[in-house]
Amino acid sequence: MGKFTFENRRSIRQYSGRDVEPELLNQLLSTAAHTQTMGNLQLYSVVVTRSAEQKAALAPAHFNQPMVQQAPVVLTICADFRRTSTWAQCRKADPGYDNILSFCNAATDALLYTQTFCNLAEEAGLGLCFLGTTIYQPQAIIDVLKLPKLTFPVATITLGWPAEEPPVSDRLPLQSFLHEETYHDPTPADIDCFYAEKESLEVNREFVCINNKETLAQIFTDIRYTRKDNEALSRTFIAALRNQGFL
Amino acid sequence: MGKFTFENRRSIRQYSGRDVEPELLNQLLSTAAHTQTMGNLQLYSVVVTRSAEQKAALAPAHFNQPMVQQAPVVLTICADFRRTSTWAQCRKADPGYDNILSFCNAATDALLYTQTFCNLAEEAGLGLCFLGTTIYQPQAIIDVLKLPKLTFPVATITLGWPAEEPPVSDRLPLQSFLHEETYHDPTPADIDCFYAEKESLEVNREFVCINNKETLAQIFTDIRYTRKDNEALSRTFIAALRNQGFL
Protein backbone atom coordinates (compact mmCIF):
# COMPACT_ATOMS: atom_id res chain seq x y z
CA MET A 1 0.00 0.00 0.00
CA GLY A 2 1.36 3.41 -0.97
CA LYS A 3 1.55 6.51 1.20
CA PHE A 4 -1.82 7.74 2.40
CA THR A 5 -3.14 10.74 0.50
CA PHE A 6 -6.41 12.33 1.40
CA GLU A 7 -7.70 12.20 -2.19
CA ASN A 8 -7.76 8.42 -1.85
CA ARG A 9 -9.52 8.13 1.47
CA ARG A 10 -12.57 5.92 1.69
CA SER A 11 -14.78 4.75 4.54
CA ILE A 12 -13.89 1.23 5.70
CA ARG A 13 -16.63 -1.09 6.92
CA GLN A 14 -14.72 -4.40 7.06
CA TYR A 15 -11.91 -4.94 9.51
CA SER A 16 -9.21 -7.58 9.91
CA GLY A 17 -8.92 -9.62 13.12
CA ARG A 18 -6.02 -7.48 14.31
CA ASP A 19 -6.73 -5.43 17.43
CA VAL A 20 -6.20 -1.69 17.68
CA GLU A 21 -3.53 -1.50 20.36
CA PRO A 22 -4.57 0.74 23.29
CA GLU A 23 -1.21 2.58 23.12
CA LEU A 24 -1.78 3.52 19.48
CA LEU A 25 -5.39 4.50 20.12
CA ASN A 26 -4.45 6.63 23.12
CA GLN A 27 -1.67 8.32 21.18
CA LEU A 28 -4.07 9.23 18.36
CA LEU A 29 -6.72 10.45 20.82
CA SER A 30 -4.12 12.58 22.63
CA THR A 31 -2.66 14.08 19.49
CA ALA A 32 -6.10 14.94 18.11
CA ALA A 33 -6.67 16.99 21.26
CA HIS A 34 -4.48 19.71 19.77
CA THR A 35 -7.49 20.65 17.65
CA GLN A 36 -8.70 24.15 18.59
CA THR A 37 -11.66 24.33 20.99
CA MET A 38 -13.82 27.05 22.54
CA GLY A 39 -11.73 28.95 25.08
CA ASN A 40 -9.43 25.89 25.09
CA LEU A 41 -12.06 24.18 27.27
CA GLN A 42 -12.13 20.93 25.22
CA LEU A 43 -15.89 20.49 25.43
CA TYR A 44 -15.91 16.83 24.46
CA SER A 45 -15.40 13.33 25.76
CA VAL A 46 -14.79 9.97 24.12
CA VAL A 47 -16.31 6.70 25.25
CA VAL A 48 -14.32 3.69 24.04
CA THR A 49 -16.26 0.47 23.50
CA ARG A 50 -14.25 -2.73 23.24
CA SER A 51 -16.50 -5.23 25.05
CA ALA A 52 -18.74 -7.45 22.95
CA GLU A 53 -21.62 -6.83 25.38
CA GLN A 54 -21.51 -3.08 24.97
CA LYS A 55 -21.16 -3.32 21.19
CA ALA A 56 -24.23 -5.54 21.11
CA ALA A 57 -26.08 -3.05 23.27
CA LEU A 58 -25.10 -0.14 20.99
CA ALA A 59 -25.90 -1.93 17.73
CA PRO A 60 -29.69 -1.33 17.66
CA ALA A 61 -29.13 2.42 18.12
CA HIS A 62 -27.20 2.28 14.86
CA PHE A 63 -29.87 0.26 13.02
CA ASN A 64 -27.73 -2.86 13.51
CA GLN A 65 -25.15 -1.81 10.96
CA PRO A 66 -22.72 -4.77 11.17
CA MET A 67 -19.59 -2.61 11.70
CA VAL A 68 -20.63 -1.84 15.26
CA GLN A 69 -20.19 -5.44 16.37
CA GLN A 70 -17.41 -6.36 13.92
CA ALA A 71 -15.00 -3.48 14.55
CA PRO A 72 -12.45 -4.03 17.32
CA VAL A 73 -13.16 -0.54 18.64
CA VAL A 74 -16.19 1.71 18.64
CA LEU A 75 -15.74 5.33 19.70
CA THR A 76 -18.65 7.52 20.74
CA ILE A 77 -17.68 11.17 20.84
CA CYS A 78 -19.85 13.38 23.01
CA ALA A 79 -20.47 17.07 23.34
CA ASP A 80 -19.54 17.53 27.00
CA PHE A 81 -20.21 20.51 29.24
CA ARG A 82 -20.39 18.17 32.23
CA ARG A 83 -16.71 18.07 33.15
CA THR A 84 -16.33 21.85 32.68
CA SER A 85 -19.43 22.50 34.80
CA THR A 86 -18.19 20.16 37.55
CA TRP A 87 -14.86 21.99 37.49
CA ALA A 88 -16.71 25.29 37.89
CA GLN A 89 -18.76 23.94 40.80
CA CYS A 90 -15.57 22.75 42.51
CA ARG A 91 -14.10 26.26 42.07
CA LYS A 92 -16.80 28.58 43.45
CA ALA A 93 -18.02 29.37 39.94
CA ASP A 94 -21.60 29.19 38.65
CA PRO A 95 -21.76 27.40 35.27
CA GLY A 96 -24.53 28.50 32.87
CA TYR A 97 -24.29 25.90 30.12
CA ASP A 98 -27.72 24.27 30.22
CA ASN A 99 -28.87 25.90 26.98
CA ILE A 100 -28.89 25.30 23.22
CA LEU A 101 -25.99 27.64 22.43
CA SER A 102 -23.78 25.74 24.86
CA PHE A 103 -24.85 22.45 23.28
CA CYS A 104 -23.83 23.82 19.87
CA ASN A 105 -20.49 25.03 21.25
CA ALA A 106 -19.73 21.62 22.72
CA ALA A 107 -20.99 19.75 19.64
CA THR A 108 -18.71 21.91 17.50
CA ASP A 109 -15.70 21.11 19.67
CA ALA A 110 -16.58 17.41 19.60
CA LEU A 111 -17.01 17.23 15.82
CA LEU A 112 -13.82 19.12 15.02
CA TYR A 113 -11.94 16.85 17.42
CA THR A 114 -13.55 13.79 15.81
CA GLN A 115 -12.45 14.77 12.34
CA THR A 116 -8.84 15.38 13.35
CA PHE A 117 -8.88 11.98 15.01
CA CYS A 118 -10.21 10.46 11.76
CA ASN A 119 -7.51 12.21 9.71
CA LEU A 120 -4.76 10.99 12.04
CA ALA A 121 -6.11 7.45 12.29
CA GLU A 122 -6.39 7.07 8.52
CA GLU A 123 -2.89 8.45 8.09
CA ALA A 124 -1.72 5.75 10.52
CA GLY A 125 -3.26 3.11 8.24
CA LEU A 126 -6.41 2.45 10.24
CA GLY A 127 -9.80 2.19 8.56
CA LEU A 128 -12.94 3.74 9.94
CA CYS A 129 -16.55 4.50 9.31
CA PHE A 130 -18.39 7.55 10.67
CA LEU A 131 -21.90 6.57 11.77
CA GLY A 132 -24.34 9.38 11.11
CA THR A 133 -26.95 7.35 12.98
CA THR A 134 -25.59 8.70 16.29
CA ILE A 135 -28.10 11.57 16.42
CA TYR A 136 -31.03 9.44 15.21
CA GLN A 137 -31.63 7.57 18.44
CA PRO A 138 -29.40 9.44 20.89
CA GLN A 139 -31.39 8.36 23.95
CA ALA A 140 -30.53 4.69 23.35
CA ILE A 141 -26.82 5.56 23.22
CA ILE A 142 -27.14 7.77 26.30
CA ASP A 143 -28.66 4.86 28.20
CA VAL A 144 -26.08 2.26 27.11
CA LEU A 145 -23.07 4.49 27.80
CA LYS A 146 -24.60 6.03 30.95
CA LEU A 147 -24.07 9.56 29.68
CA PRO A 148 -24.95 12.09 32.40
CA LYS A 149 -26.63 15.48 32.00
CA LEU A 150 -24.77 18.06 29.88
CA THR A 151 -23.26 15.35 27.69
CA PHE A 152 -24.67 14.25 24.33
CA PRO A 153 -23.42 11.79 21.69
CA VAL A 154 -22.69 13.52 18.37
CA ALA A 155 -20.43 11.08 16.50
CA THR A 156 -19.63 7.39 16.39
CA ILE A 157 -16.55 5.90 14.74
CA THR A 158 -16.07 2.19 14.07
CA LEU A 159 -12.33 1.58 13.91
CA GLY A 160 -10.01 -1.22 12.90
CA TRP A 161 -7.42 -2.35 10.39
CA PRO A 162 -8.87 -2.41 6.85
CA ALA A 163 -9.91 -5.72 5.35
CA GLU A 164 -11.28 -4.18 2.15
CA GLU A 165 -10.28 -1.54 -0.37
CA PRO A 166 -13.51 -0.11 -1.75
CA PRO A 167 -13.46 2.39 -4.62
CA VAL A 168 -13.12 6.08 -3.79
CA SER A 169 -16.57 7.71 -3.82
CA ASP A 170 -17.49 10.41 -6.31
CA ARG A 171 -17.58 14.03 -5.15
CA LEU A 172 -19.45 17.07 -6.43
CA PRO A 173 -17.33 19.60 -8.34
CA LEU A 174 -15.83 22.43 -6.28
CA GLN A 175 -18.00 25.08 -7.92
CA SER A 176 -21.11 23.35 -6.55
CA PHE A 177 -20.20 24.31 -2.97
CA LEU A 178 -17.88 27.30 -3.42
CA HIS A 179 -19.35 30.80 -3.37
CA GLU A 180 -17.38 34.00 -3.98
CA GLU A 181 -18.25 36.87 -1.61
CA THR A 182 -21.96 36.03 -1.41
CA TYR A 183 -24.10 32.91 -1.82
CA HIS A 184 -25.20 32.26 -5.39
CA ASP A 185 -28.33 30.17 -5.56
CA PRO A 186 -27.95 27.36 -8.12
CA THR A 187 -30.11 27.58 -11.24
CA PRO A 188 -31.61 24.43 -12.80
CA ALA A 189 -28.78 24.55 -15.36
CA ASP A 190 -26.22 24.69 -12.51
CA ILE A 191 -27.89 21.70 -10.88
CA ASP A 192 -27.66 19.70 -14.12
CA CYS A 193 -23.97 20.47 -14.26
CA PHE A 194 -23.20 19.78 -10.58
CA TYR A 195 -25.02 16.44 -10.44
CA ALA A 196 -24.28 15.10 -13.93
CA GLU A 197 -21.40 12.85 -12.87
CA LYS A 198 -23.19 11.49 -9.79
CA GLU A 199 -26.35 10.74 -11.75
CA SER A 200 -24.44 9.02 -14.55
CA LEU A 201 -22.56 6.58 -12.32
CA GLU A 202 -23.49 2.98 -13.10
CA VAL A 203 -23.95 2.11 -9.43
CA ASN A 204 -26.40 4.97 -8.95
CA ARG A 205 -28.34 4.19 -12.13
CA GLU A 206 -28.76 0.61 -10.95
CA PHE A 207 -29.84 1.81 -7.53
CA VAL A 208 -32.58 3.93 -9.12
CA CYS A 209 -33.69 1.02 -11.27
CA ILE A 210 -33.75 -1.61 -8.48
CA ASN A 211 -35.84 0.72 -6.32
CA ASN A 212 -38.31 1.50 -9.11
CA LYS A 213 -37.60 5.21 -8.93
CA GLU A 214 -37.40 7.75 -11.69
CA THR A 215 -34.48 9.84 -10.38
CA LEU A 216 -31.54 9.46 -8.01
CA ALA A 217 -32.80 12.34 -5.89
CA GLN A 218 -35.96 10.31 -5.17
CA ILE A 219 -33.77 7.61 -3.58
CA PHE A 220 -32.82 10.17 -0.96
CA THR A 221 -36.18 11.90 -0.48
CA ASP A 222 -38.40 8.79 -0.69
CA ILE A 223 -36.24 6.04 0.83
CA ARG A 224 -33.09 7.06 2.65
CA TYR A 225 -33.93 10.40 4.29
CA THR A 226 -37.66 10.93 4.15
CA ARG A 227 -39.61 13.87 5.51
CA LYS A 228 -41.59 11.56 7.77
CA ASP A 229 -38.46 10.05 9.33
CA ASN A 230 -36.71 13.41 9.63
CA GLU A 231 -39.68 14.93 11.42
CA ALA A 232 -40.10 11.98 13.80
CA LEU A 233 -36.36 11.88 14.54
CA SER A 234 -36.33 15.63 15.09
CA ARG A 235 -38.84 15.14 17.91
CA THR A 236 -36.82 12.39 19.60
CA PHE A 237 -33.64 14.43 19.16
CA ILE A 238 -35.24 17.43 20.88
CA ALA A 239 -36.55 15.18 23.66
CA ALA A 240 -33.05 13.77 24.25
CA LEU A 241 -31.54 17.27 24.30
CA ARG A 242 -34.09 18.20 26.96
CA ASN A 243 -33.36 15.05 29.01
CA GLN A 244 -29.66 15.85 28.93
CA GLY A 245 -30.32 19.34 30.26
CA PHE A 246 -29.52 21.38 27.15
CA LEU A 247 -33.04 22.74 26.66
CA MET B 1 10.60 25.80 9.99
CA GLY B 2 10.56 22.03 10.54
CA LYS B 3 7.98 19.57 9.26
CA PHE B 4 4.50 20.21 10.54
CA THR B 5 3.41 17.88 13.31
CA PHE B 6 -0.02 18.11 14.82
CA GLU B 7 1.33 18.22 18.38
CA ASN B 8 2.80 21.64 17.54
CA ARG B 9 -0.21 23.21 15.93
CA ARG B 10 -1.39 26.57 17.21
CA SER B 11 -4.04 29.03 16.11
CA ILE B 12 -2.56 31.91 14.08
CA ARG B 13 -4.06 35.38 14.40
CA GLN B 14 -1.39 37.46 12.63
CA TYR B 15 -0.76 37.06 8.92
CA SER B 16 1.98 38.25 6.57
CA GLY B 17 1.16 40.44 3.55
CA ARG B 18 1.40 37.43 1.23
CA ASP B 19 -1.85 36.44 -0.45
CA VAL B 20 -3.35 32.96 -0.37
CA GLU B 21 -3.26 32.04 -4.04
CA PRO B 22 -6.71 31.00 -5.37
CA GLU B 23 -5.21 27.85 -6.93
CA LEU B 24 -3.84 26.70 -3.58
CA LEU B 25 -7.05 27.56 -1.76
CA ASN B 26 -9.18 25.74 -4.33
CA GLN B 27 -6.93 22.69 -4.21
CA LEU B 28 -7.25 22.51 -0.41
CA LEU B 29 -11.02 23.04 -0.54
CA SER B 30 -11.34 20.29 -3.19
CA THR B 31 -9.15 17.82 -1.35
CA ALA B 32 -11.00 18.39 1.93
CA ALA B 33 -14.19 17.35 0.15
CA HIS B 34 -13.07 13.74 0.44
CA THR B 35 -14.22 13.91 4.05
CA GLN B 36 -17.15 11.54 4.61
CA THR B 37 -20.64 13.10 4.53
CA MET B 38 -24.22 11.95 5.05
CA GLY B 39 -25.21 9.75 2.12
CA ASN B 40 -22.32 11.40 0.24
CA LEU B 41 -24.59 14.44 -0.18
CA GLN B 42 -21.96 16.99 0.93
CA LEU B 43 -24.37 19.09 2.96
CA TYR B 44 -22.14 22.17 3.15
CA SER B 45 -21.03 25.21 1.25
CA VAL B 46 -18.13 27.62 1.63
CA VAL B 47 -18.34 31.38 1.12
CA VAL B 48 -14.94 32.91 0.38
CA THR B 49 -14.47 36.53 1.44
CA ARG B 50 -11.53 38.41 -0.07
CA SER B 51 -12.99 41.91 -0.56
CA ALA B 52 -12.21 44.52 2.08
CA GLU B 53 -15.85 45.67 2.01
CA GLN B 54 -17.22 42.24 2.85
CA LYS B 55 -14.61 41.69 5.57
CA ALA B 56 -15.59 45.01 7.12
CA ALA B 57 -19.25 44.00 6.95
CA LEU B 58 -18.53 40.63 8.61
CA ALA B 59 -16.30 42.04 11.36
CA PRO B 60 -19.03 43.20 13.78
CA ALA B 61 -20.64 39.74 13.69
CA HIS B 62 -17.32 38.46 15.07
CA PHE B 63 -17.08 41.15 17.77
CA ASN B 64 -14.57 43.00 15.61
CA GLN B 65 -11.80 40.51 16.23
CA PRO B 66 -8.99 42.04 14.13
CA MET B 67 -8.20 38.83 12.21
CA VAL B 68 -11.38 39.20 10.15
CA GLN B 69 -10.13 42.34 8.43
CA GLN B 70 -6.41 41.50 8.53
CA ALA B 71 -6.48 37.98 7.07
CA PRO B 72 -6.20 37.77 3.28
CA VAL B 73 -9.03 35.24 3.22
CA VAL B 74 -12.06 34.62 5.42
CA LEU B 75 -14.02 31.40 4.89
CA THR B 76 -17.55 30.97 6.18
CA ILE B 77 -18.61 27.34 6.12
CA CYS B 78 -22.35 26.73 6.07
CA ALA B 79 -24.62 23.82 6.80
CA ASP B 80 -26.40 23.58 3.45
CA PHE B 81 -29.53 21.64 2.57
CA ARG B 82 -30.39 24.27 -0.04
CA ARG B 83 -28.44 22.84 -2.98
CA THR B 84 -29.62 19.28 -2.23
CA SER B 85 -33.24 20.45 -1.93
CA THR B 86 -33.01 22.39 -5.20
CA TRP B 87 -31.58 19.27 -6.85
CA ALA B 88 -34.54 17.28 -5.53
CA GLN B 89 -37.03 19.84 -6.80
CA CYS B 90 -35.41 19.73 -10.24
CA ARG B 91 -35.75 15.92 -10.22
CA LYS B 92 -39.41 15.33 -9.31
CA ALA B 93 -38.46 14.61 -5.69
CA ASP B 94 -39.99 16.17 -2.57
CA PRO B 95 -37.27 17.26 -0.10
CA GLY B 96 -38.17 17.15 3.62
CA TYR B 97 -35.18 18.87 5.19
CA ASP B 98 -36.76 21.87 6.92
CA ASN B 99 -36.32 20.43 10.41
CA ILE B 100 -33.83 20.37 13.26
CA LEU B 101 -32.47 16.88 12.52
CA SER B 102 -31.60 17.94 8.99
CA PHE B 103 -29.91 21.04 10.33
CA CYS B 104 -27.79 18.83 12.60
CA ASN B 105 -26.95 16.50 9.73
CA ALA B 106 -25.80 19.39 7.57
CA ALA B 107 -23.94 21.10 10.43
CA THR B 108 -22.12 17.83 11.09
CA ASP B 109 -21.06 17.53 7.45
CA ALA B 110 -19.95 21.17 7.45
CA LEU B 111 -17.88 20.91 10.64
CA LEU B 112 -16.14 17.67 9.65
CA TYR B 113 -15.31 19.21 6.28
CA THR B 114 -14.04 22.36 8.01
CA GLN B 115 -11.67 20.45 10.23
CA THR B 116 -10.16 18.43 7.39
CA PHE B 117 -9.66 21.71 5.54
CA CYS B 118 -7.92 23.16 8.62
CA ASN B 119 -5.65 20.15 8.93
CA LEU B 120 -4.69 20.25 5.24
CA ALA B 121 -4.15 24.03 5.27
CA GLU B 122 -1.90 23.88 8.33
CA GLU B 123 0.05 21.02 6.80
CA ALA B 124 0.59 23.26 3.74
CA GLY B 125 2.12 25.90 6.03
CA LEU B 126 -0.88 28.22 6.26
CA GLY B 127 -1.99 29.69 9.55
CA LEU B 128 -5.59 29.98 10.60
CA CYS B 129 -7.96 30.82 13.39
CA PHE B 130 -11.37 29.18 13.92
CA LEU B 131 -13.91 31.81 15.00
CA GLY B 132 -16.39 30.34 17.45
CA THR B 133 -18.32 33.60 17.21
CA THR B 134 -20.02 32.33 14.03
CA ILE B 135 -23.04 30.97 15.89
CA TYR B 136 -23.30 33.95 18.26
CA GLN B 137 -24.79 36.39 15.78
CA PRO B 138 -25.62 34.16 12.84
CA GLN B 139 -28.28 36.48 11.44
CA ALA B 140 -25.70 39.22 10.82
CA ILE B 141 -23.57 36.77 8.82
CA ILE B 142 -26.63 35.47 6.96
CA ASP B 143 -27.46 39.03 5.91
CA VAL B 144 -23.93 39.96 4.80
CA LEU B 145 -23.35 36.76 2.82
CA LYS B 146 -26.96 36.62 1.52
CA LEU B 147 -27.43 33.08 2.76
CA PRO B 148 -30.77 31.67 1.56
CA LYS B 149 -33.17 29.39 3.44
CA LEU B 150 -31.82 25.94 4.41
CA THR B 151 -28.29 27.30 4.77
CA PHE B 152 -26.74 28.35 8.07
CA PRO B 153 -23.20 29.51 8.98
CA VAL B 154 -21.51 27.13 11.43
CA ALA B 155 -17.80 27.94 11.15
CA THR B 156 -15.54 30.82 10.15
CA ILE B 157 -11.84 30.47 9.37
CA THR B 158 -9.45 33.40 9.00
CA LEU B 159 -6.62 32.24 6.80
CA GLY B 160 -3.20 33.49 5.73
CA TRP B 161 0.52 32.91 5.97
CA PRO B 162 1.71 33.03 9.60
CA ALA B 163 3.42 36.18 10.86
CA GLU B 164 3.72 34.93 14.43
CA GLU B 165 4.72 31.75 16.26
CA PRO B 166 2.75 31.72 19.49
CA PRO B 167 3.40 29.04 22.13
CA VAL B 168 1.46 25.78 21.87
CA SER B 169 -1.54 25.89 24.23
CA ASP B 170 -1.87 23.53 27.18
CA ARG B 171 -4.24 20.58 26.91
CA LEU B 172 -6.09 18.53 29.51
CA PRO B 173 -4.68 15.05 30.15
CA LEU B 174 -6.19 12.22 28.10
CA GLN B 175 -7.83 10.61 31.13
CA SER B 176 -9.95 13.75 31.62
CA PHE B 177 -11.92 13.08 28.44
CA LEU B 178 -11.45 9.34 27.88
CA HIS B 179 -14.03 6.92 29.27
CA GLU B 180 -13.80 3.13 29.09
CA GLU B 181 -17.10 1.39 28.21
CA THR B 182 -19.29 3.83 30.16
CA TYR B 183 -19.05 7.46 31.26
CA HIS B 184 -17.35 7.96 34.61
CA ASP B 185 -18.37 11.17 36.28
CA PRO B 186 -15.32 13.06 37.60
CA THR B 187 -14.99 13.33 41.39
CA PRO B 188 -13.64 16.52 42.99
CA ALA B 189 -10.28 14.71 43.32
CA ASP B 190 -10.35 13.90 39.59
CA ILE B 191 -11.09 17.55 38.82
CA ASP B 192 -8.11 18.68 40.91
CA CYS B 193 -5.91 16.31 38.93
CA PHE B 194 -7.31 17.17 35.47
CA TYR B 195 -7.10 20.95 35.90
CA ALA B 196 -3.90 21.22 37.98
CA GLU B 197 -1.62 22.07 35.07
CA LYS B 198 -4.03 24.58 33.49
CA GLU B 199 -4.62 26.33 36.81
CA SER B 200 -0.91 26.53 37.58
CA LEU B 201 0.10 28.21 34.32
CA GLU B 202 1.57 31.66 34.91
CA VAL B 203 -0.55 33.22 32.14
CA ASN B 204 -3.75 31.87 33.71
CA ARG B 205 -2.79 32.93 37.24
CA GLU B 206 -2.15 36.45 35.98
CA PHE B 207 -5.45 36.44 34.14
CA VAL B 208 -7.28 35.54 37.37
CA CYS B 209 -5.41 38.26 39.26
CA ILE B 210 -5.94 41.04 36.68
CA ASN B 211 -9.66 40.30 36.61
CA ASN B 212 -9.96 40.27 40.40
CA LYS B 213 -11.29 36.72 40.43
CA GLU B 214 -10.66 33.96 42.90
CA THR B 215 -10.43 31.02 40.46
CA LEU B 216 -9.72 30.41 36.78
CA ALA B 217 -13.14 28.79 36.32
CA GLN B 218 -14.74 32.10 37.32
CA ILE B 219 -13.04 33.75 34.35
CA PHE B 220 -15.13 31.51 32.13
CA THR B 221 -18.42 31.57 34.04
CA ASP B 222 -18.37 35.27 35.04
CA ILE B 223 -16.60 36.95 32.10
CA ARG B 224 -16.06 34.93 28.95
CA TYR B 225 -19.10 32.63 28.71
CA THR B 226 -21.73 33.82 31.14
CA ARG B 227 -25.17 32.33 31.72
CA LYS B 228 -26.78 35.64 30.77
CA ASP B 229 -24.96 35.80 27.41
CA ASN B 230 -25.50 32.12 26.67
CA GLU B 231 -29.23 32.41 27.30
CA ALA B 232 -29.60 35.57 25.21
CA LEU B 233 -27.52 34.10 22.37
CA SER B 234 -29.53 30.88 22.53
CA ARG B 235 -32.65 32.91 21.76
CA THR B 236 -31.10 34.69 18.77
CA PHE B 237 -29.64 31.39 17.54
CA ILE B 238 -33.09 29.75 17.64
CA ALA B 239 -34.61 32.76 15.87
CA ALA B 240 -32.01 32.53 13.10
CA LEU B 241 -32.61 28.78 12.71
CA ARG B 242 -36.31 29.54 12.32
CA ASN B 243 -35.64 32.31 9.76
CA GLN B 244 -33.51 29.94 7.72
CA GLY B 245 -36.30 27.39 7.65
CA PHE B 246 -34.82 24.72 9.93
CA LEU B 247 -37.47 25.04 12.66
Write the layout of secondary structure elements.
Two copies of one chain form a homodimer.
Chain A: H1 22-32, E1 44-49, H2 52-58, H3 67-70, E2 73-80, H4 82-89, H5 100-123, E3 127-131, H6 138-145, E4 151-160, E5 178-180, H7 188-200, H8 202-210, H9 216-224, H10 227-243
Antiparallel strand pairs in A: 1-2, 2-4, 3-4
Helix pairs in contact in A: 1-5
Structural overview:
The first copy, chain A, is of the alpha+beta class and 247 residues long. The first copy, chain A, has a domain of 155 residues: NADH Oxidase (3-Layer(aba) Sandwich), CATH 3.40.109.10. Helices cover 45% and strands 13% of the residues of chain A. The first copy, chain A, contains ten helices and five strands, in the order αβααβααβαββαααα. Chain A has a four-stranded antiparallel sheet. Strand 5 of chain A pairs parallel with strand 1 of chain B, so a sheet runs across the interface.
